[in-house]
């Protein structure tokens, strides 16, 4: 249950309490004892506030709007200022003083969500009632003290209970949200692990046939085509391992990993980087790096790799000496790839527009 639900439920309970007090206790007292006409006007004003709050509750509002609560509290205080002087002589805090307790319940009904305003309004109501009691000078001090203490303690006790319920509801909601967040993190971690396994399985799918062919002596390790297959598999696996590293610049990290494999094969590779790091989705990084990785896998001699990043575009290009034919590749879904051969050099470029 949320704090709004707590306020809505307690307001419904308080509404029943106010209706019961006003009709069951206040109205008979007002009729039985002799009150001046302002007392009836005060009763009518309170009834109008009651109707307004009842309409809001019936409309299903979980919170009483300030446009109703604050003007309503002002009308309730005005009713107190009308009803108290209209009491019979010496009746303050006595059996005929119908307004003292009822006004407090009205303020609690209206200002439950605003405890500071509620306490200030109650203080003003009690201070005026006590001032009129002292001005009237004919009441029983002991009875007045008991009425003030009993009435305000019950109302303030109800306020404290409501605030405790609201606090508990908020703590329960926070605990539920934290539990849901933990479940979400757990599910994301599980999904990431599954994605990693799927990715590794996809890469190993290209390696396992090669290993099976070598084990069955279908191909020879000394064959140039076999060495090419091994080189391609090594670059692909190294890029896959780098893809899952937690680094500030994943794209550059993956490019560097592929360059490292080529350099271990004796290829002299120069890497040029321009622009600041740009967030690139994993799927896009794979397609950006793939042409360069294939080119480096078959490169022999020298190669130049360049990474250009602007506000609108990310480019990865590689230039190698023409050598073995590049392996077939899948059609990219996110990037545009161009490959050309000029003067014995093979140039391959992948472009991804960020917008």
TrEMBL record:
Lineage top rank: taxon: Bacteria
Ranges that cross the membrane: 12-33, 39-59, 66-83, 89-110, 117-135, 141-162
Keywords carried by this UniProt record: Membrane, Transmembrane, Transmembrane helix
Protein's UniProt name: Signal transduction histidine kinase
Source species: Lentzea miocenica
């Amino acid at each position: 249950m949320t704090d709004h639900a707590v306020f809505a439920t307690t307001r419904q309970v308080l509404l029943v309490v106010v209706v019961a007090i006003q009709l069951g206790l206040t109205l008979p007292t007002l009729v039985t004892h002799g009150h001046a006409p302002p007392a009836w006007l005060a009763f009518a004003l309170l009834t109008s506030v009651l109707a307004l709050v009842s309409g809001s509750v019936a409309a299903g509002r979980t919170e009483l709007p300030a446009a109703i609560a604050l003007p309503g509290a002002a009308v309730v205080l005005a009713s107190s200022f009308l009803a108290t002087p209209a009491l019979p002589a010496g009746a303050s805090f006595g059996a005929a003083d119908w307004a003292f307790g009822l006004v407090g319940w009205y303020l609690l009904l209206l200002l439950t969500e605003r405890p500071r305003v509620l306490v200030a309004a109650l203080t003003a109501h009690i201070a005026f009632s006590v001032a009129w009691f002292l001005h009237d000078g004919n009441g029983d001090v002991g009875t007045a003290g008991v009425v003030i203490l009993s009435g305000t303690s019950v109302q303030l006790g109800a306020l404290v209970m409501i605030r405790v319920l609201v606090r508990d509801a908020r703590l329960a909601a926070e605990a539920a949200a934290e539990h849901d967040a933990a479940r979400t993190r757990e599910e994301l971690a599980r999904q990431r692990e599954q994605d990693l396994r799927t990715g590794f399985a996809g890469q190993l799918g290209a390696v396992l046939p090669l290993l099976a062919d070598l084990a069955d002596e279908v191909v020879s390790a000394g064959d140039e085509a076999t060495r090419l297959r091994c080189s391609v598999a090594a670059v692909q696996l190294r890029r896959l391992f780098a893809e899952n590293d937690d680094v500030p610049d994943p794209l550059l990290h993956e490019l560097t990993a592929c360059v490292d494999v080529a350099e271990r094969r004796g290829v002299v590779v120069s890497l040029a980087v321009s622009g600041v790091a740009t967030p690139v989705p994993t799927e896009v990084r794979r397609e950006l790096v793939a042409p360069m990785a294939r080119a480096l896998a078959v490169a022999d001699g020298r190669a130049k790799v360049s990474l250009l990043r602007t506000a609108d575009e990310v480019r990865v290009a590689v230039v190698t000496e023409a050598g073995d034919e590049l392996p077939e590749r899948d059609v990219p879904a996110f990037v545009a790839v161009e490959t050309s051969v000029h003067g014995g050099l093979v140039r391959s470029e992948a472009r991804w527009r960020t917008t």
